[in-house]
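Re: weekly structure request thread

Next one in the queue (225 aa):
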Amino acid sequence: MNRRAILFAVAALTALEAPALAQTDQLHPRTDPNAGLAPVDLAGPDRDRALGQANASLNALQRVQGHFAQTAPNHTVSSGTFYMQRPGKLRFEYDPPAALVIVSDGSVVAERNQAMRTTDRTPLRSTPLYFFLRSDIDLARDSRITRVARAGDWLLISVIDRSGETDGRLTLFFYGPDAEFRCWDVVDVTGSRTRVMLSDLTQPASLDPSLFRLDDVISRGHGPH
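Done, posted below.
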């Protein structure tokens, strides 16, 4: 996967253009949006309530760590550990054999390939990560909402960047009555889709600041671990 595709994947915040939830992976409805019912679009007060619930859920996530599983456009799956601290900070450590670490320090997203000993940088504002790493998240204010729908216990919200600084379309997935943030899809300008599923989420009281320092990523690869 090239650098741009990887950064989209973690907008991760990084398939072909298709109706959300269209694939079937035979996974449990609690862990995969594809296993739910067909999505039903929301309008009026129901739509407004759903957006408010999603905003509240995202804003409540100040510090989070857990695991991720990323499905690439070619259907290959990679996994690893992630750390998030709003505003602006995120770290994705890919499990072997991938030799990737992706870090946002609040202004720049850096992708470190340890095998190639290369580091690529992209402004955070130019990636979909920006939409859920802001200090104050309001999806309707910060983006153009293209869809709000429910599919069983899942709520999905699709957005595109109003300013045009970020290409592609981001869909956020929330599960259950408390709208827990569990997943996102990114469809890039070529129509390729990447999905990132989150699991085993915890909210620690603090995270090691060195996790989000770009110099540590470059000099030590996997930082403090």
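The chain has one domain: 3-16+35-220. Residues 1-29, 221-225 have pLDDT under 50 and may be disordered.
Next request, please.
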